[in-house]
Amino acid sequence: MGNPIKSHAFEQTSPAWAGELQSLMEAYQQAGGDPASFQMPEVATLAVSGDQVLVSHDIPGVHLYSQPLEHGVRVSVVVDDGTLVKHPVHLCFGVLPMEGIQRIEADYQIGNGAQVQFLAHCSFPNAVRVEHRMNARIHIGRNSSMSYKEEHYHGLEGGVEVYPYSEVTIEEGGQFTSNFAITRGRVGTLMMNYHIEAQKDALAELVTKVFGSGDDHIRVEETIHLNGENAHSMTKTRIAVKDKAISEVTTITEGNAPRARGHMDCTEIVRDQALAANNPIVKVSNAQAQVTHEAAIGTVNRRELETLMARGLDEEEAVDLIIRAMIRS
Amino acid sequence: MTQPFFVVEDVCLKKDNRPILNHINLSLSEGQIHVLLGVNGSGKSSLAYTLMGCEGYTSESGRILLDGKDITHTRITERARMGISLAWQEPVRFEGLPIGKYIELGASESKREKVIAALEAVSLSPKKYAYRAADQTLSGGERKRVELAAIYAMQPRLAILDEPDSGIDALSITDIARLICEMAKHNSAVLLITHRPELVEMADSASLMCFGSIIFSGSPRETSQYYQNRCEPHLNILGSQPWQISLNNS
After folding, report:
1. What is the per-residue pLDDT for B72?
2. Could you tell me the sign of the dihedral formed by the alpha carbons of B58, B60, B66, B71, in that order?
3. The domain B6-238 is classified under which CATH number: 1.10.1660.10, 3.40.50.300, 3.60.15.10, 3.40.50.150?
4. In chain A, which residue's Cα lies nearest the Cα of B131?
5. Across the interface, which of B81, B96, B135 has its CB nearest the CB of A312?
6. In this protein, which residues make up the domain named ABC transporter (chain B) (predicted)?
């Protein structure tokens, strides 16, 4: 990586950007984040507004590097071998104007025997025409674990196009957990694409929850290769679409090694003129591997509705409660 | 016993042109516990759904009256808001819906206190269960208790309990009996579908259903005796029945 910008602590943010940081923190809060985390020296933090790194704060064992790009930033996160990170690393990405492009090229290197959690919030609260591209390459070392929780807020206009792309390699005994959610406001366009390679005894869990409305378009593609002996994976997808929103989910799990186990679980709730599709693909190339899937697409279960209506909720309230409970759990 | 506030008059129900309920008559007063007996498939649950106003269970003829007002064609939500509620025999699971939130739905006031009191009433620790989801991770018995807690928190004028005891261990039956008595003490009428002698005993009145009709009404003792003498000998015709009703001193 050439000319990296290293570790701006939040205290060092240029006064010229102080107002921007304040606005970004407000947006961060709208996406569900807690700005107080950015004031805690023991918490590693990174905040990027458009193509500007406003905060980059290291802690022992966690190193953040960044480098400007056209319309974005290249970010590198390195967690040293054996580092057990006590507090989640807080990441904030946002575009505050109504229009803009943000491209994030991210590399995560999680050393052997390390444990780390990330809390990422992406906020585009005023978006009328915003494009956000996140290309992440994640390498999880032997016997390490990484949890990545990502929450988005795209405002109420639906003018956001988001392209999260991740390539994840999990070495022997490693664990990767991803929780991705857009459950408030509009989605706009979401084109999500994850590729996971799991080695021996590795574990991958992907949870995706999205609530689409208007003319939102949601596409989720997840591919998991269980290449190592005893590798395990689980994908859980919960999507609700209403109005004229479209949801397309494709999950592929390959069991390529002895005792590899994969499961795919997808539920999509459809209302109004919305459209949902689910395409689970199971590939098994080893006789001792097993991959299973379950999928349910349709309207809200009548019994669930009537149970809530028998408590006094009207049908709309009952549907809303069922959907929100499902995607926010 | 006060005057009946809930009256079922000559209600008939057909599904797919097949008679399900035939000329059902029933009335309930405040604080009354009325037990509904009958073999599997006799129409007890169908009657419960009809009284609650579930989809597909609108009576073809007859009337359902609440305080003299005809509610035969009102929807389930309106009936619930008027004070009628139903605990299903097999309660559904709600992914992600906290138990506390579920219980407080029907409670009109002091919601947090109601949740705590309702969970304690069914012997579930509020600390352990209030924030847990009412989902697949609950056992059948736990889910049943949550369902009863939700009804208890509502303090409905009429609680329809469809086999609240099925799949519940013997120890829990005491909890359920106590809860039902508590509800009746607070003036809720309880229409209880059950086969458990312990619960039948505590009722004020009972009816026996067979092939969609109420064929006998009287005291719980008379009704269960009628069942033993007249129905049990014909169980091979009426349908399978894994339980027996026998009251003390009968």
Report:
1. 96
2. positive
3. 3.40.50.300
4. A329
5. B81
6. 6-236
